[in-house]
C-alpha cells in the first residue's frame, strides 16, 4: 500500500534525511528507485545514506539498486579523472590552461556533490583566444566532432558559449569546450576572467573553479537552462556545495558575485528554490537580499508557475499537467532569455520542423545515434 | 500491467501488442504470484503514427527511455526478452554478468560462454530438458565475492533450425510461437523449468568453463585450454567488466582458478552430455 506522497519535496527530504527511508514500504521504495534513477540521484542517495549510517538497515531491494548505481558512478569518476589528465596534458602541449567545470570539476575536487554523481560529458573552460588552437590540437589527437547540420553548426559557432561537442574516437568520451559560461548572443555573458582567475589546482594537477565561483556557475547554469530534466539533481549539487563550503560570508559573496555578473535574478531564484524545497534555512544576508530584491510581476509569476514546479524529475509517476506546463514554460523562458526575439523565432521554426517530422515518421528514422537492438 | 518474475529480477510489463502479454503469460504465469516490488518497468509501444500502420514497428521502453531502435512488429515477443536482458545488463553492477549459458548437475555449474551461431542455445535447451538444471541461457549471474552462480527463471531462446530440432527431440516441452525474420532469423522460446523446480535451485560453485562450437562434420573433439586463454575469453564475454573493473578481474580470476577449461567441437549432443556428466561433473 502506498502511503507516502511521492513528489519532489519528499525526494529532497529523503536525500537530505536518508533515515526517512527506514519507514518506507517495499512498494514505496520501488517508486522511489524508479524516480531517482530517472533523476540520476540513485548514487547520491547511496552516499547520503552511508553517511547517515542507515544504508545497512535499508531493505535488500533498495540496497541492491543503490549499490549498483554507486558502482557505476564510481567507475565514471575514475574515467573522468583519467580523461581530465589526458585533456590537461594535451592542452598544455599548446600552452592552453583548461578549467574543469560542473560534474568533472566536482569529481576532481572530490567535493561531496561529486560522490555518486553521473554525468554525460566533461565540460572545460578556456579563453576565447585559446579556443581555436585548443580545438585544432584536440582534433589532431583523436578528438572529433560529429557532422552537424548547417543550422546547428551556426548555432554553436556564432551564438553559443561553446563549440560543438567533441568525442574521443576510442573511448567515446564527450567533451564540451566553453569560452564562457553563458551565450554571447544573449548580451549577458559575464567577464570570463573573473572565473578563469578564480581557479584552484586540484590534487590531480587539473584546475577547477574555486568553490564560490563553482557555486555561482552552477546557479547560472541551472537557472538559465531551458531543459529542466536534470534540475532536481543540479539543485541538489548546489545544496551540497553550499553545505560543504559554508562559512559566514558564503551567501554574502555569492550575492555580490551575482550583482557583479548581472545574474542577480538567478541567485534570487536559487535562494527561493532552496528555501521552497526546505534544503536550506536562509541566513540573515540572504533574507535581506530576497526581501530587497525588486522582482517584477512577470518574474514573480515565472518563479511560481514555471521555475519552482519544474524541478520535478521527468518521470510519469510524478508528472502532472501542472508540472508539464511549468516545464514547458521553463523551456520557453530559457530560450526567451537566451537570444533576441528575431533569432529566437528562427530557432523555434527550425526546431519545431524537426519535432513534427519525428512525430510523423518516428524519431529514429533520421537518427543514426541509437544502437540497433543488441544481438544477444 | 503484467508482472514477469524471473526469480532474481522482476519486471512490470505493459504492451500495446496483446499478443506479447499472452506469450509472456505462457512463459511466466506460474512465477508471478509474489507480492514484491519490481526492478524494472518495461513497455512495448507504437512510437510513430505512420509506423503503426505501414510496415508496423514496435519500440521497447525501459521505464521512460527506449535504449534501441524500433523493430518490426512480428518480433515483439523476442524484443521483450532482449529488452529484459538489456535492463539487467545496463543496471546490474553488484554481480558479474557473463554472456554465457549455465547448466548445473549435482550442485556443480558449467558455464558456456559463446558467440551467436555456436549452438549454445540448442545445447542448453536439449540438456535443460534432459536432466540438467538450466540456470541461464544468455547470462551467467555471478556473485562477486564467492564466484557462485545464481539461477534465473528464463526460457531458452532458440533460432532457426534448432527450433524444429528441439521440438523433434522434446515434443512435450512448451514453445512460444515462432517470430519470423528477426535479426537473428526465426526465433522461439522454449520453457526448460517450471517455477516449482526453480524455487528449489540454490546458487552453486562453477566447476568448468566450456566454449562450445557446433561443427556438422566434426565428432566430439575436446581441447584443454590454458588459464590465460580462458581468462581472456571469459572476461571478454562479461557485460559489465568495464564498469566493475578490478572487482570483475578478481572474480574472473577466482572462476578460472577453480574451473577446468575446455573448448569442444561437436556434432552430437549425446556425446557432449556424456563428456560433461562423466568427465566434468564426475
UniProtKB/TrEMBL annotation, chain B:
GO molecular function term, any single one: kinase activity
Domain of life where this protein originates: Bacteria
InterPro entries: HprK-rel_A, P-loop_NTPase
Keyword entries, A-Z: Kinase, Transferase
SUPFAM superfamilies (alphabetical): PEP carboxykinase-like
Protein name: HPr kinase
Organism, as annotated: Aliiglaciecola lipolytica E3
Taxonomic path: Bacteria, Pseudomonadati, Pseudomonadota, Gammaproteobacteria, Alteromonadales
Amino acid at each position: 500500500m502506498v502511503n507516502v506522497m511521492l513528489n519532489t519535496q519528499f525526494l529532497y527530504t529523503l536525500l537530505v534525511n536518508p533515515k526517512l527511508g527506514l519507514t518506507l514500504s517495499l512498494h514505496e521504495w520501488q517508486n522511489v528507485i524508479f524516480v531517482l534513477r530517472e533523476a540520476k540521484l540513485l548514487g547520491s542517495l547511496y552516499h547520503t545514506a552511508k553517511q547517515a549510517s542507515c544504508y545497512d538497515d535499508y531493505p535488500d531491494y533498495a540496497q541492491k539498486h543503490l549499490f549498483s548505481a554507486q558502482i557505476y558512478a564510481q567507475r565514471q569518476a575514475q574515467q573522468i579523472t583519467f580523461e581530465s589528465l589526458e585533456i590537461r596534458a594535451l592542452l598544455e602541449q599548446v600552452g592552453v590552461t583548461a578549467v574543469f567545470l560542473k560534474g568533472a570539476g566536482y569529481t576532481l575536487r572530490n567535493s561531496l556533490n561529486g560522490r555518486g554523481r553521473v554525468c554525460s560529458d566533461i565540460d572545460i573552460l578556456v579563453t576565447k583566444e585559446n579556443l581555436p588552437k585548443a580545438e585544432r590540437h584536440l582534433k589532431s589527437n583523436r578528438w572529433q566532432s560529429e557532422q552537424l547540420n548547417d543550422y546547428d553548426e551556426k548555432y554553436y559557432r556564432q551564438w553559443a558559449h561553446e563549440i560543438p561537442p567533441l568525442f574521443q574516437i576510442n573511448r567515446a568520451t564527450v567533451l564540451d569546450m566553453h569560452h564562457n559560461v553563458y551565450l554571447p548572443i544573449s548580451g549577458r555573458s559575464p567577464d570570463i576572467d573573473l572565473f578563469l582567475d578564480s581557479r584552484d589546482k586540484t590534487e590531480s594537477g587539473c584546475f577547477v573553479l574555486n568553490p564560490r565561483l563553482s557555486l555561482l556557475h552552477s546557479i547560472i547554469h541551472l537557472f538559465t537552462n531551458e531543459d529542466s530534466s536534470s534540475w532536481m539533481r543540479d539543485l541538489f549539487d548546489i545544496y551540497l556545495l553550499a553545505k560543504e563550503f559554508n562559512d559566514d560570508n558564503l551567501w554574502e559573496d555569492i550575492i555580490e558575485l551575482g550583482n557583479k555578473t548581472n545574474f542577480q535574478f538567478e541567485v534570487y531564484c536559487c535562494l527561493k528554490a532552496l528555501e521552497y524545497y526546505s534544503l536550506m534555512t536562509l541566513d540573515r544576508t540572504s533574507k535581506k537580499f530576497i526581501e530587497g530584491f525588486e522582482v517584477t510581476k512577470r518574474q514573480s509569476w515565472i518563479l511560481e508557475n514555471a521555475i519552482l514546479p519544474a524541478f520535478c524529475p521527468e518521470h510519469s509517476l510524478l508528472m502532472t499537467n501542472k508540472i508539464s506546463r511549468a516545464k514547458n514554460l521553463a523551456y520557453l523562458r530559457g530560450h526567451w532569455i537566451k537570444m533576441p526575439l528575431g533569432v529566437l523565432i528562427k530557432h523555434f521554426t527550425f526546431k519545431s520542423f524537426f519535432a513534427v517530422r519525428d512525430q510523423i515518421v518516428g524519431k529514429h528514422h533520421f537518427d543514426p545515434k541509437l544502437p540497433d537492438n543488441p544481438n544477444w | 500491467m503484467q508482472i514477469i518474475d524471473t526469480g532474481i529480477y522482476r519486471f512490470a510489463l505493459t504492451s500495446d501488442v496483446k499478443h506479447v502479454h499472452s506469450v509472456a503469460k505462457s512463459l511466466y504465469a506460474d512465477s508471478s504470484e509474489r507480492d514484491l516490488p519490481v526492478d524494472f518497468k518495461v513497455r512495448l509501444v507504437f512510437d510513430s503514427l505512420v509506423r503503426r500502420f505501414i510496415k508496423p514497428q514496435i519500440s521497447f521502453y525501459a521505464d521512460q527511455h527506449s535504449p534501441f531502435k524500433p523493430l518490426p512488429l512480428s518480433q515483439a515477443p523476442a524484443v521483450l526478452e532482449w529488452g529484459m536482458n538489456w535492463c539487467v545488463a545496463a543496471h546490474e553492477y553488484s554481480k558479474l554478468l557473463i554472456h554465457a549459458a549455465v547448466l548445473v548437475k549435482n550442485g556443480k555449474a558449467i558455464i558456456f560462454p559463446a558467440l551467436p551461431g555456436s549452438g549454445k542455445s540448442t545445447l542448453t535447451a536439449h540438456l535443460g530438458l534432459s536432466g540438467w538444471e538450466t540456470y541461464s541461457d544468455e547470462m551467467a549471474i555471478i556473485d562477486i565475492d564467492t564466484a557462485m552462480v545464481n539461477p534465473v527463471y528464463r526460457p531458452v531462446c532458440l533460432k532457426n533450425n534448432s527450433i524444429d530440432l528441439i521440438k523433434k527431440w522434446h515434443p512435450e516441452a512448451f514453445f512460444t510461437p515462432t517470430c519470423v525474420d528477426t535479426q537473428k532469423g526465426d526465433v522461439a522460446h522454449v520453457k526448460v523449468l517450471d517455477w516449482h523446480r526453480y524455487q528449489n535451485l540454490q546458487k552453486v560453485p562453477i566447476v568448468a568453463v566450456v566454449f562450445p562450437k557446433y561443427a556438422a562434420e566434426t565428432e566430439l573433439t575436446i581441447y584443454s585450454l590454458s588459464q590465460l586463454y580462458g581468462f581472456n575469453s571469459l572476461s571478454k564475454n562479461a557485460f559489465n567488466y568495464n564498469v566493475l573493473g578490478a572487482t570483475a578481474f578478481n572474480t574472473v580470476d577466482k572462476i578460472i582458478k577453480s574451473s577446468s577449461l575446455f573448448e569442444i567441437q561437436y556434432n552430437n549432443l549425446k556425446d557432449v552430455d556424456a563428456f560433461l556428466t562423466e568427465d566434468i561433473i564426475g
